[in-house]
Design a protein that fits this description.
This protein has about 400 residues and is of the alpha/beta class. The protein folds into two domains: about 150 residues, Aspartate Aminotransferase, domain 1, CATH 3.90.1150; about 240 residues, Type I PLP-dependent aspartate aminotransferase-like (Major domain) (Aspartate Aminotransferase, domain 2). It has 13 helices and 17 strands. Helix 3 runs antiparallel to helix 10, helix 4 packs parallel to helix 10 and helix 11 runs parallel beside helix 13. The two termini are about 40 Å apart.
Amino acid sequence: MDTNTRKPFKYIARTYARFNLEIVRGYGTRLWDKDGREYLDFTSGIAVCSLGHCNPAVVDAVREQAGKLFHVSNLYWTEPQLKVASMLVENSCADRVFFCNSGAESVEAAIKLARKYGHDTRGPDCYEVITLQDSFHGRTLAAITATGQPVYQRGFEPLPAGFTHVPRNDIRSLKLATGKRTAAIMLEPIQGEGGVRPLDDAYLNAARDLADRTGALLIFDEIQVGMGRTGTLFAYEQTPVKPDVICLAKGLANGLPIGAMLARESVMEHLGPGSHASTFGANPVACAAAGAVLDQLLHTDILEKVKDTGKYLHDRLAEVCRGWPAIRETRGRGLIQAVEFSVPQPNLANWLIQEGFLTLVANGRILRLLPPFVIEKKEIDTFIQALERYRAESGS
């Protein structure tokens, strides 16, 4: 029975503006729909299947773990949980890990931690979280309030109190907003949903200095740009600062639901027993997948490949966009890249689907590219050729 016969919107909430595609299979950089048509995936499930669809090592780890233990409560330890926690801590600036199921949940955990830390160290009036305009931190009520894009907040008012948004890379505005009520400054080192916009090193230094001087926490939301997406395990490694708290999800388990909130010991100790929890956090099967992902990120040359192919993609995009009047800018780091058009391109995503490419378009005019880390340069070349055809056909 095909999708049209099944009438999917009869049963599924209309919370997504979906493309008319039913995907049935994936491997590596490729996906296939129910009609057998092949697509080159430049989305990775929105930065999730970073090691490629049905990565063999991840599949094997999941199959093995599924035959041992599906679930046990967090009243007990499991080997997959301990493995992932130790790998994250030993390869980061953090000391402790809280596991959950998604990026929004890791942000919620970070917000709760910031408020508890502020309350314990500076009093009950220390609860505000500063975030940036154009940021994106998730879809729960607190996360959309932290998100600096009003489009995600409309209709959900009144929003929770305690959040302030300031312009990106504007040090003066950040200084004016930071004070005795500031519990945390929460930043994406590279804004993803906001259009692949890296923050300036000077701005990150200022944020770190302000956090240190006021006693606030510096939180990095690396949900989209962490886990190797920029060419290092964590995006903060390519900045001059180290955060106090890191939020992770998306690429951590290559497609299985998992999130993690990492923090320094002196910070995490403020979340004691009973202060926060997650029934499915650290699920053994999801952690087995995450362990297989981390094994490859840490013990193979895949991160060097991300740097190499990321630079190649960046350079090829710059080359094809040079002299294209409709293009405002190309930008990115590693395998998160963007092409910003000066005017909306309402047909671009569908046009590329017809050409056999899956992409993301933000705000109608920012083409966002997040291919799997295993993408080859010849596959990038086929995409660049498609962009050249689009330019010729659009006449822009």
